[in-house]
Amino acid sequence: MSMDAIVAGPDEDGIADALEAEGVDVARVTGVVSRPALEEAGICEADLYVLTDVGQATTIPIAHDLNDDLRTVTYARETIPEFVKGQLDLAIDPQLMNATVVAEELAG
Question: Alpha-carbon distance 81 to 47, whole Å?
Fold first, then answer.
């Protein structure tokens, strides 16, 4: 079974490449992440949404609104705002776990 993921935000720690190395089909969204951008990237069919910019945390509720079965992950050094934590499946700091390990766990 293949997995589809969307990685939104800058990807300085290489989570998108690590996911692709695990066989995950990855769509990237950069710049301001909006509902139309998420829809165009395939959020309605995606299995996983990885946000690397917590400044755009409001996209997590939007992503869930579009896809109830979506797993949401932040892969960022900053702390996720409280208002989003209830809709977030996992928050990981790249300084604590490298992208390869995270991708293996998410794809497995």
Answer: 23
DSSP helix/strand/coil, 42: coil
Q: Which amino acid is at 93?
A: D
Q: CA 18 to CA 33: how far, in whole Å? A: 21
Distance CA 52, CA 74 (A): 6
CB of 48 closer than 8 Å to CB of 4: yes
> pLDDT tens digit string along 7-29?
999 999 999 999 999 999 999 99
Q: Which helix (H) or strand (E) holds 75?
A: strand 71-75
Whole-prediction pTM = 0.95
